[in-house]
Amino acid sequence: MQRLIPVLKKDNVELELIMLIRTILAASKEISFRVSQGALAGVLGSTLDENIQGEVQKKLDVIANQLLKGMLLDDDSVRAIASEEEDFVVTGTPKAPYIVAFDPLDGSSNVDINGQIGTIFTIYKAKDDVPDDSELQFAQKGDQQLCAGYVLYGASTLLVMTTGGPTRCYTLDSTHGGYLLTENNFEIPVRTKEFSVNIANYRYWPEKIQCYFDELLYQSDAFSGSSMRWNAAMVGDIHRIISRGGLFLYPQDTRDGNSNGKIRLLYEANPLAFLVENSGGLASSLGKAILEIQPTSLHQRVPVAIGSKEQVEYYNKVTR
Ligand SMILES: O=P(O)(O)OC[C@H]1O[C@](O)(COP(=O)(O)O)[C@@H](O)[C@@H]1O
Ligand SMILES: [Mg+2]
Ligand SMILES: [Mg+2]
């Protein structure tokens, strides 16, 4: 089994970027250990604090955020970071080459029920024409990502990552503590009968999206035999889709604050879109490629339709 570093070197990834990826993975191993300890380590349950999204933070949200933030700010290749759990940009080493954005713990509502959770990260080049602490550092389109990945803390701890080439999977080997290559090049099937959505939101959706689901659920034979999966952790749903295809949807809806759905562009939609598109799938928002969206704020949300090419195309065709 090939180790991670030789694979990245073969991909001609620059050494400084490889070292930064190592920093992120060192934090992920520590998070993986804390997650596996669960109640034994007292990491379950909520804090009394809310993040900028208005969500009550889980203890593990805070622990994972502190671990990643601490290790990244100690890394002198990092100029600034942005996190779901940080209201603002946090600056690192001046003139350093990279900026990093991350969702320290995706699927927080699964923490206390031993469900799937993960860490999502993305790396960009730092900008020299804006201040280090400015949100403009992160106002870069998703197609400018140098590297994107997630670590899934499931039965195994898996790293799925791209540096612009194939999307690959590495499994954390608990015997020697390193990530070993277990999937060299994911290729998402163009169409399946699996879809993933929180169907309980149906009443709040625009009519065209309701019609799409009416057709899918009971009107059209073309969809008979479909099955739904919902992990309540985007990282887990997207991992299933990268592994065997399907469609992940988090549409806009009519509730206050949900006009763009729930998924955050910078540290959820863009990194996962980069991974899916580099596996032959499609990632769109309101019919437009997610990777081409010009970001306007750190925690902005976007409606998403991500997954198997033909399923995304059909959804966009009937809901536009
Ligand atoms: O509450 P819902 O509608 O099931 O939403 C679940 C979605 O929210 C999220 O948990 C949001 O991410 P966080 O857990 O990082 O806040 C996604 O991973 C998941 O797809
Ligand atoms: Mg998340
Ligand atoms: Mg999160």
TrEMBL record:
Fructose-1-6-bisphosphatase class I N-terminal domain: residues covered: 11-183
Top EC class for this record: hydrolase
Stored Pfam families: FBPase, FBPase_C
Keywords: Carbohydrate metabolism, Cytoplasm, Hydrolase, Magnesium, Metal-binding
Alphabetized InterPro entries for the sequence: FBPase_C_dom, FBPase_class-1, FBPase_N, FBPtase, Fructose_bisphosphatase_AS
GO MF terms held by the record: fructose 1,6-bisphosphate 1-phosphatase activity
Compartment(s) of residence: Cytoplasm
Catalytic activity: beta-D-fructose 1,6-bisphosphate + H2O = beta-D-fructose 6-phosphate + phosphate
Cofactor names: Mg(2+)
Cross-referenced Gene3D superfamilies: 3.40.190.80, Fructose-1,6-Bisphosphatase, subunit A, domain 1
Chain sites annotated for binding Mg(2+) 1: E84, D103, L105
Pathway of action: Carbohydrate biosynthesis; Calvin cycle
Residues given in the record as substrate binding sites: D106, G107, S108, S109, N198, K262
Organism domain of life: Bacteria
Record text on cofactor binding: Binds 2 magnesium ions per subunit.
Residues bound to Mg(2+) 2: D103, D106, E268
EC number: 3.1.3.11
Keyword ATP-binding: no
Fructose-1-6-bisphosphatase class 1 C-terminal domain span: 188-318
Primary residence: cytoplasm
Family: Belongs to the FBPase class 1 family.
Assembly description: Homotetramer.
The protein, known as: Fructose-1,6-bisphosphatase class 1
Taxonomic lineage of the native organism: Bacteria, Pseudomonadati, Pseudomonadota, Gammaproteobacteria, Alteromonadales
Encoding gene, per UniProt annotation: fbp
